[in-house]
Specification:
CATH class of the domain at 99-326: Alpha Beta
Strand content: 15-25%
Largest sheet: 9 strands, mixed
Radius of gyration: 20 Å
Distance between the termini: 43 Å
CATH topology of the domain at 99-326: Rossmann fold
Number of helices: 11
Mean pLDDT: 93
CATH superfamily of the domain at 99-326: Vaccinia Virus protein VP39
Low-confidence stretches: none
Order of helices and strands: HHEHEEHHEHEHEHEHEHEHEEEEEE
Length: about 325
């Protein structure tokens, strides 16, 4: 693959992907933009009513069978939507296809209590609330005040009423939860095993979002960033795994291609947390592949193949997803 990216980056891609897969990736890296994708805010309306309204306005929409409530706009750009009342009043929400997939694998049910750790940039928190229809509680965590303010604004505009936002480093989540429970007269042990579902969309090197037409998406890339992220991801997992109830679900996801932040993390979880079992992920999608079992000198456990890679393509960003059940 010949492009503006560092040689080391390209060498890494050549080890991860086949020639055919690299051709798909390179096509995206040199494309100006994808068709916009969106979901419908189920708190405010129904898919049937909103789709009827959009079609009356001349929009050509394609529903993806990939996951529920996921649509691609075929004939307009996102900017074309900005003047629509449905957009301005948050009946529809623009969200990348791959960004919608991790929440789908949480297997959410009404009255679930959900932890959305490192919640920015807020799309998934509101997606969780839309599925739950404000039936129970979401704890959303982020450590940046600007992002917290944006999340607060987004949730309010989408009529989300069941989310509590905690501003803190995710590695401090146990301390912050204890502060809340202490006020309610509970003991320190009450913070553990309280969540039905945990979504950890991890801070990562964002390689799946690279676009060679936008320098800021790749100019930052350094191998050191990948190593730093692995360390942070591991530290956060150490704090959140005890918070998950038995028989319930943790979804780990990233928007990067780096095995050190993907399969290596899954390998670490399976090796250090026997109470977590990786689950099969069913996703019939032409741009997906199973997790790899070897990178460089590192070999991963066979079960790591149950994780899922989504290729950067002209339809989707690059993404990685693994689903665990606590036993």
């Amino acid at each position: 693959m010949k492009n503006k990216l560092p040689r080391e980056f390209n060498d890494r891609l050549n080890e991860i992907y086949t020639k055919e897969e690299l051709e798909i990736i390179e096509e995206w890296y040199n494309t100006s933009e994808r068709k916009p994708s969106f979901r419908i805010n189920l708190i405010k309306s129904t898919e049937e009513d909103i789709l009827k309204d959009l079609k009356l306005k001349g929009l050509v929409i394609r529903k993806l069978d990939l996951i529920p409530n996921c649509y691609i706009l075929e004939n307009w750009t996102e900017k074309d939507l900005w003047d629509l009342e449905l957009f301005q009043k948050w009946f529809i929400y623009m969200q990348q296809i791959t960004s919608q997939i991790p929440v789908h694998f949480l297997d959410l049910k009404e009255w679930n209590k959900v932890l959305d750790i490192t919640a920015a940039p807020w799309s998934k928190t509101s997606q969780i609330a839309s599925i739950l229809k404000n039936s129970w509680k979401i704890i959303a965590v982020d450590n940046n005040q600007i992002r917290v303010d944006k999340l607060t604004f987004t949730l309010k505009r989408q009529w989300v009423k069941n989310a509590k936002i905690i501003k803190t480093d995710a590695r401090n989540i146990q301390v912050e939860l204890w502060k809340i429970e202490e006020k309610n007269g509970y003991t320190k042990d009450d913070i553990f095993e309280q969540f039905d579902s945990i979504l950890f969309d991890a801070p990562c090197s964002a390689e799946g979002r690279i676009n060679l037409n936008i320098e800021k998406t790749y100019a930052f890339w350094k191998p050191e960033i990948i190593k730093r992220n692995y360390k942070v991801q591991k530290q956060i997992l150490e704090k959140i795994i005890p918070l998950l109830k038995k028989d319930w679900t943790l979804v780990y996801s990233t928007c990067t291609l780096a095995p050190e932040e993907n399969e290596a993390v899954v390998h670490m979880i399976l090796s250090n947390y026997p109470e977590l079992q990786i689950q099969d992920i069913e996703l019939d999608y032409k741009y997906s592949k199973t997790g790899i079992l070897k990178f460089g000198k590192q070999c991963y456990r066979k079960d790591v193949a149950k994780s899922l890679r989504i290729l950067p393509s002209n339809e989707t960003e690059g993404f990685f997803i693994a689903k665990f059940k606590k036993v």
